[in-house]
Design a protein that fits this description.
It is a single chain. The protein has 43 residues and is an all-beta fold. Helix content is 0%, strand content 14%. The protein contains no helices and two strands. The chain has strands at residues 14-16, 22-24.
C-alpha cells in the first residue's frame, strides 16, 4: 500500500454507511475536518 504524504489530499474512497448507502470521501470536500471510523465486526 502506498504511503500518504503530509499536506496532500487523502485518496478518494467509497464505503457504505449503516443503511447501505454509498458515501464517498469526496462528498465532504471543502470541509475542514472529517472523522472516519472503521468498526470491526465481532462474532
Amino acid at each position: 500500500m502506498p504511503r500518504v504524504a503530509l499536506d496532500t489530499a487523502a485518496p478518494d474512497f467509497t464505503l457504505e454507511d449503516f443503511a447501505g448507502t454509498p458515501v464517498s470521501l469526496s462528498d465532504y470536500r471543502g470541509r475542514s475536518h472529517v472523522l472516519v471510523v472503521f468498526n470491526r465486526g465481532f462474532v
